[in-house]
Amino acid sequence: VFSPQGLCALSINSDNCYLAYPGSATIGEVQVFDTVNLRAANMIPAHDSPLAAVVFDASGTKLATASEKGTVIRVFSIPEGQKLFEFRRGVKRCVSICSLAFSIEGLYLSASSNTETVHIFKLETQKEKPAEEPTTWGGYFGKVLMASTTYLPSQVTEMFTQGRAFATVRLPFSGHKNICALAMIQKIPRLLVAAADGYLYLYNLDPQEGGECSLMKQHRLDGSAEPPNEILEQGSHDRPLTAQAYNTAGMKGTRPGRR
């Protein structure tokens, strides 16, 4: 299938080595190819619109996808193609997804776009709570609303069941192409954003509460303002963090804190 952007993703895991690429130019089909046995593994009908982004997690057992609309992010099991998670990035506007990235242990998934907001989703299954009788008007309304979803169109019902962002990042720009990565640095989960404005931004992610992430450091990538191999705290030049800290190789056993 012709893909002007050359869209594809390759799993880096030697035990689960797959290649994912668009299976159609008009709808969001994902072809999954087994690169070890050199055969087609699966075709996943991921979205109604053409694909905009695909990425594997480090284990090669999960695949995240986004379409050109950019409103819904889905995660599938590999090679089975079963839908594991479905997240809604937004409802107000369609966006161009720039980057999808899993954390090294596969607990978090980031999605950046041509807007100023980066969404971080937490990939954990919600435990079902025993049904309780509502005691307030708001509780009764919520119960009636959920019961009514069985009579609504599937597109409307999906909006009530899709997960929302665990954390968000507000970038100091919009409209620039960018790429994100999630990494453990100094035992704290961080989001790194490299943007076409020439800067690398580093944000802290609270693994317990989520919410809006705080900007910790930024670094000009061409080295014109700061030393080329250092990331300096804003407003301070006395505590450099060397770029070598961003090497995530060998960090497979490190996990961010869980609730």
UniProtKB/TrEMBL annotation:
It holds the Pfam family PROPPIN. One of its GO terms (biological process) is autophagy. It comes from the Eukaryota. Gene3D superfamilies: YVTN repeat-like/Quinoprotein amine dehydrogenase (2.130.10.10). Signal peptide: none annotated. It is found in: Preautophagosomal structure. Keywords: Autophagy, Lipid-binding, Repeat, WD repeat. GO terms for cellular component: phagophore assembly site. The keyword Ligase does not apply. Its main location: other. Residues 222-259 are annotated as: Disordered. One of its GO terms (molecular function) is lipid binding. SUPFAM superfamilies: WD40 repeat-like. PANTHER family: WD-REPEAT PROTEIN INTERACTING WITH PHOSPHOINOSIDES WIPI -RELATED (PTHR11227). Belongs to the WD repeat PROPPIN family. This is WD repeat domain, phosphoinositide interacting 2. It comes from Salmo trutta (Brown trout). The lineage of its organism: Eukaryota, Metazoa, Chordata, Craniata, Vertebrata. The gene is WIPI2.
